[in-house]
Amino acid sequence: MMPTTRSFEITGLFDKESDCHKLLYAPVSHPWTYRETVVYNVTFEGDAGALEAFVGRVLVDPISQAMQDGSGSAFPAAAFVLEYGMKGGALDLEKETILNYYRALTEPGFSIQKLVLRRRVYVFGEGADSAPFVKDVCNPAIHTWEVKQQAAA
To answer: Which residues contact 148 (CB under 8 A, 6 or more apart)?
Structure first.
């Protein structure tokens, strides 16, 4: 059986767009806003339904969060998306905790081959520039990142 990769994006149900100055060290003269999500990319073998149930049960708070397919964009109106995560050799405590929980299961119905956690920062506003976000959010010593431009609506 060939491994398959699924991507799950977790959004906050009560989160709203926030002022970008919460993320940036230097003020910008634009009224840009942002929203953050978490994406779990899981390469696995076995029952896809069992994996989805695991993610929904372990990684999603059913009161305050929603899960969706992470291969698309949760917020298509964003000017761009900054997606970042830990480098392969960096200690990622959240990832290790998830994997330890998975390993403790007696019969999960799937086997995790690889787990990659990424944070997405969706930035809204005309002319939004990714440069200050990359500089202030991403640490080149521990993070990898990618800026994804949204398709014009």
So the answer is: 80, 81, 83
CA angle 16, 21, 25 (to 5 degrees): 145
DSSP notation for the chain = ---EEEEEEEEETT---EEGGGT-SS--SS--EEEEEEEEEEEEEE-HHHHHHHHHHHT--TTTEEEEETTS-S-TT-SEEEEEEE-TTS--HHHHHHHHHHHT-S--SEEEEEEEEEEEEEEESTT--SHHHHHHH--TTTEEEEEEEPPP-
What's phi and psi for 102, nearest 5 deg?
Answer: -60, -45
Residues of the chain with pLDDT > 90: what percent? 88
Residue given tokens 């299961």 in the structure block: 105
pTM over 0.85: yes
Task: Indicate the angle between helix axes 48-58 and 93-103, nearest 10 degrees.
Answer: 120
Alpha-carbon distance 49 to 73, whole Å?
A: 22
